[in-house]
Write a structure and sequence with these properties.
By secondary structure, the protein is of the alpha+beta class. The protein is 19% helix and 27% strand.
């Protein structure tokens, strides 16, 4: 024993972290904790809405968390077409895996 107290290495929050200077668990090194930005919401009444949040894991990986709600047409065929279009556009946005 050397008489020194054990402590976790100090981390800093990015400028966009909503918990910055409060009680950010990622800043204190908790396993599985994340830095999270304030969510941005867009909506089109009657059509749908989307919520976008920037996230950084404790390991440094950043990603966009997206929650999407889209109204579907009452007609089954039209609803399936809308779903197919959504999948196509989402696949394009996500793109190939990063390297």
């Amino acid at each position: 024993m050397n008489g020194r107290a054990w402590s976790r290495p100090r981390r800093t929050c990015p400028d966009w972290c909503v918990s910055r200077n409060l009680n950010c668990r990622a800043e204190h090194g908790y396993p599985g904790a994340e830095h999270r930005a304030k969510p941005i919401t867009i909506s089109n009444p009657g059509a749908g809405s989307a919520v976008l949040t920037r996230v950084r894991t404790a390991g440094g990986t950043e990603y966009a968390e997206i929650r999407l709600s889209a109204t579907l047409p009452a007609d089954e065929h039209a609803a399936r077409q809308r779903l197919a279009a959504l999948l196509t556009h989402l696949r394009t946005l996500i793109g190939p895996a990063g390297r």
